[in-house]
Amino acid sequence: MKNLFYTLLCVLVFSSFVFSQELKVQKFDPPIPYSGSSDWGPDYTVSNTEPLGIPSGVYRNSSNILYVAVPDTNIAADKCLVILSSINDGANWNISYMVSPAGVVPKTKMVISGLDSVYCFFLYNSAIYCWNIQSPNINMFTGYTNIRDFDVAASSTGSLYFFFDLNNSNQIRAAGSADGGYTWPWTLYLSSTGAHPRIYMSGTEDILLINYYGVTIQPDTITSAIRSVRYRESAPGTLLIKGTFSTPIAAGIPKDQFMGVLLGNTAWLFYTTGLTGNIDLNCMVSADSGTTFGSPFTIGSLPGRDEYWFDAKHFLAGYGVDLIYYSDTLQSGPPTNITDRLYYSSASINTPTVFDSSVQINQHPLIWSARGYIPSLIEYYNVVGDNGAIWVGVDGANQKLFFDRMQAVTNIKKNTLEIPDNYTLKQNYPNPFNPITKIEFSIPKDEFVSLKVYDLLGKEVYALVSNNLKSGKYIIDFDGSSFSSGVYFYKIAAGIFTETRKMILLK
To answer: Which of the residues 10, 101, 112, 205 has the least number of beta carbons within 10 Å of its own beta carbon?
Structure first.
């Protein structure tokens, strides 16, 4: 690895690192009406411009911050990659770090290690770069500069592993690092007949599930077989094979996208089948950590629609897998939130082949692009099972990057079974408070409720409620632990009712 020359731009929390090519941002319009899931909040704009490559994101529990890596030459001048962050669950986004100069980054992958470090890997000029975003150093993997595709995972020991294939040769290789990507002493030559590796670190132990096109790479790569193998971490930065190679999906039918998810002894292998006009999303489940897989079944197969571009991750609140995917009618006219949808579903580890009915989570329509804008699922990995999704869609004539959050509302509860006659928003108590206060409100009928906290400048700093609620009286806790002392305002919006009150945080 070698350090990439950088310059530090000391403007607020902005950091910029020098390297090679160009980047833009605008204003969020209110979401258009739609019929979706009451658990998912509104579409928030992450960036007002279309990315040049595939974005990715993570949630850092220790600081309650969302990070999204956006390959875009328009967000900031002379930059090729921007890290945006949000401290209020996606309602507002700010630039945290920037990489320069301008250029095209076709793919990013963000991961959080077991030591709570946030890393961004990205492909630039056929080379892989590793960046701990809390550090001013970007390191280039110097072993190969003809990389076509890659995937990355982090272990509980803080180690990093990345698998990659090479342009003009179907070789899959891997490397491991125990020092945050500065050196990569462990290497692996996985296959001489493989392409597009996909890896997933188990949610319960340091076992890596690896899937890739293999056996014999067909002239049309996506018709190749899907191979599967597992490796375990034997020491920080080092993997050893666990079990044997298998071929759960034979060559033949086109499989444009695939990935596995491993949680304990349960593994899910998701993949699409078919060509444009007849693409379905399928799954196979393993009960022995990915050694063998059961019969395939279809998750997304709506008449007149193609289901593709998906992402999946495990969740720890109850244990299972979350899944998001793009559903498209292939209409000839402009996309709408009826024709181009983002769906969400999940399955429990206890019934891994039974997925909940899919629900639409987007308000703005998704958009197809040859850049392959696969939506990114962001797991919070908290005790209640929150997650979010970033995806590229359209707002009128503009293409933007959006974020949606599924909020498992646990700190809000009904105060009584009585149905109130009027809308109310009561004064928080205690007030002043440190650090927790209670806010009580009433709604006389079922409807969408927004309850948000703002600072003295009117900037939204936290979304307490963004859900459809039944009529009733509610009490919700606001925890100001991560906020500084001062005056804040909380505002409710429910139907035509709005009200704002002031509260004081004293530490």
So the answer is: 10
Q: Which amino acid is at 378?
A: I
Q: Which residue has the tokens 């690192």?
A: 17
Query: Residue 380 burial (CB < 10 Å; 0-12/13-18/19+)?
Result: buried
The DSSP bridge partners found for residue 443 are: 472
- Beta sheet of 412-416, edge-to-edge order: 412-416, 472-479, 436-443, 424-425
Residue carrying the six token digits 């459809």: 468
For the chain, list the domains and their CATH numbers.
1-30+39-106+371-408 (no CATH), 412-505 (2.60.40.1930)
Question: For the segment 358-410, what is each residue's pLDDT rounded down to a tens digit?
Answer: 889 998 999 999 899 999 999 998 766 789 999 999 998 899 999 998 864 44
Could you give the angle at the alpha carbon of 120 between the alpha carbons of 114 and 122, nearest 5°?
140
CB 117 within 8 A of CB 133: no
What is the residue type of 186? W
Of 115, 81, 112, 93, the residue nearest 13 (C-alpha): 93
**Summary mean pLDDT of the chain:** 87
